Structure formats: structure tokens, C-alpha cells
Amino acid sequence: MYRPRTGRQRAVASSRRDASNKRVACIGLTALALQFGGSAPAQEAKIDSPAPEAYSLLGRPLIPMALAPEERVKLQSNLDAALAALAADPDDPEKVIWAGRRLAYLGRYRDAIAMYSRGLERWPESFKLLRHRGHRWITLREFDRAIADLEQAARLIRSRRDEVEPDGAPNSSNIPRSTSHSNIWYHLGLAYYLKGDFANADRCYRECLKFSTNDDMLCATSDWLYMTCRRLGRINAARAVLDPIRAEMEIFESHAYHRRLRMYKGEIPPDSLLSTTGATDLDIATQGYGVGNWFLCNGDTVKAKAIFQRVLEGPYWPAFGSIAAEADLARMQ
After folding, report:
1. Which string of DSSP letters, residue by residue, matches 112-179?
2. Rounded to an integer, what distance in angstroms lies between the CA atom of residue 301 and that of residue 306?
3. Cα 42–chain centre separation
4. H or E, element range at 244
5. CA 189 to CA 183: how far, in whole Å?
6. Are 2 and 330 in contact (CB under 8 A)?
7. Sign of torsion, CA 41 47 53 57?
8. What gap in Å lies between CA 97 and CA 105, rounded to an integer?
């Protein structure tokens, strides 16, 4: 488990959460009010500078990432379309989900959670709304809330047939690779892993493997399961996780996870994964954390810590690798 905060740290964190929650209430989402039966505020509040969406596990304020102007225009247009679709059909929970997803893609994670929460007031047994809200609680470092949502989602979906989950940010082949079941178990395993509850993480990732029916999901799930087994000291179980991993696989989006797994097998040197040449910010966070964790599990704490700190120097703080690096550094301190 990561180290508990002191009384002063808890008070500061609570104050910060209150401020963030007030921010959501302040900006209001006109769409939320209109589309769920309320009335529109007279005027949307103006925010002079971005407020932190969250605070890292090490106390750093996490400001929405800067977007290229053309990317922001595109994402805002997608959000406007999603809100218009919800306004036209407020009785469709899928429209609520897409409005929340589009908010999150703009870095408005608390607004996304507010959207999902309003939806859950109306559809409290929607495992899809719970799955997406759970994901965003992870982004905000609220692991207990994420676990509560995702455990409930897992119970609700247990007897249901699996289905492909459409992508909001499609891969280059425009072929979705994840499903409702795999996403719920994947994110639930992650929330437990980030808390340091590796026994429960192992349980969830092994369940996730049952629904990881393509190479992308197999690599993503296997990577976190391998790391979980290493944290539990189960070396033989960790090696068994690597057995299905091959150099040639049909990978559309999980390239960083595939490279990490090949590193664990000894096919790629660790330092090669730390190269920034041609790598996105997300790749750097993902691959960097895997390398740092590999050194940590092999007893080189100094090098692991240096790599984790390097990961946190990057801008992509919502990345799971960044959150995991924070969690490990917090435990190491």
C-alpha cells in the first residue's frame, strides 16, 4: 500500500477536492441541466486559468494538458456534437456515455464524472456508466471510488454476453479491440494494482484474460498481470504469463505493452524502451514505467526510482504508467 497521508496532508487534499468540486458546480454544464430535466444557468462562469483537475499522489497539481489548436478544435467539435445528440435524445444512456467520454478527451475529467454521475442517478444499474466513471476516478487518483464503481459494474455484467466497446479515439486500423467485460476487469485490476493490493489485482487480471481474445488485449492484460505476479514474488507464474507472447503478433494499438513483454522475455534490452525517438508522450510513460518496474522487481531500487521520476517529468499525467510511477514513488518515500 502507498504510505497513508498525515492529518495535514489529508486536510489539504480534502480542501483541494472541495475546490475542484466547486469548480464543476461553478462552470455547470448547460447541457447537464438541460438534458437531464433542469434549467439552463443564466450564464456560464468564466475561468481565467485552468484549475487543477486533480493532485498527484506526491502533491503536484495536475493541470489539463495543453492541446494543439487543431486538436482542440476537433475535440471541441466532437463534444458539441455529443451534447447535441444527448439534447435530442436524453432518454438514451449511450448518449450520456459519449458526452462524458468527449469531455474527458478534452481533459475535463471532473466534468466527465459529473456527467456519468447524473446518468447513474437515472440508470443506477448501468455497468457501462460505472465502467467509465470508474476509469476517470483512476485518472483523478481516487482509487477507492474507482474500485467501488468497477466492482459494482463487474457484478452487474457477470451474466451478460460480452460485446465490443466502440473507440472514442480509434486506432490506425479503426478496429476496436476491447470489450465491456475486458474493460471492466482491466480497469478494476489497475485500481487494485495502484493501491498496492496485488492479490486482488491478480484476481482481476486473470478474469480479464478470459475476455482478452485478440493480441492487443492479450498484451495489455498480460503486461499488468506479469508485473502483478512479480510484485507478489510469483516468479514461475510471471514466466507463464509470457508464454503466449511472440515477436510477431497482430498489434494495432498495444505496441508499448508488446515491447515491454518482449523486454521481460529478454528479447529487447531495457534501455531501448527508454528512447524518445519516434515515441509519443503516452508511449514514454507506458514504456518508462515498465522498465522502472522491471528494475525495481530485480532489486535495483536506485535505477527504478530514477526512471519513475523521469516518467513524471513528462506531460502525460493521465497515463496509467504515470499514475503507477507516482504510486511506487509514494510507497518508496
Report:
1. HHHHHHHHHHH-TT-HHHHHHHHHHHHHTT-HHHHHHHHHHHHHHHTTSPP-BPPPSS--TT-----B
2. 9
3. 34
4. none
5. 10
6. yes
7. negative
8. 12
Grid cell digits, residue 11: 486536510
Per the document, the length of the chain is 333
Q: Which helix (H) or strand (E) holds 191?
A: helix 180-195
Q: Which residues contact 6 (CB under 8 A, 6 or more apart)?
A: none
pLDDT (tens digit, 0 to 9) for every residue of the chain, 333 residues total?
Answer: 444 444 444 444 544 444 444 444 333 454 454 444 433 333 333 445 678 999 999 999 999 999 999 999 999 999 999 999 999 999 999 999 999 999 999 999 999 999 999 999 999 999 999 999 999 999 999 999 999 999 999 999 999 999 999 998 888 889 999 999 999 999 999 999 999 999 999 999 999 999 999 999 999 999 999 999 999 999 999 999 999 999 999 999 999 999 999 999 999 999 899 887 777 888 889 999 999 999 999 999 999 999 999 999 999 999 999 999 999 999 998
Give Cα 283 distance to the centre of its chain: 14
State which amino acid sits at residue 18.
Answer: D
Distance, CA of 101 to chain centre: 12
Model pLDDT, residue 49 = 61
Burial category of 226 from C-beta neighbours within 10 Å (exposed 0-12, middle 13-18, buried 19 and up): buried
Q: At 144, which amino acid appears?
A: D
Q: How distant, in Å, are the alpha carbons of 1, 140, 170, 218, 226 from that of 193?
A: 9, 15, 26, 18, 12
pLDDT score of 283 = 85
Q: Give CA–CA dist 62/55, Å, rounded.
A: 5
Q: Residue 265, Cβ neighbours under 10 Å: how many?
A: 15
Residue 99: phi and psi, rounded to 5, are -65, -40
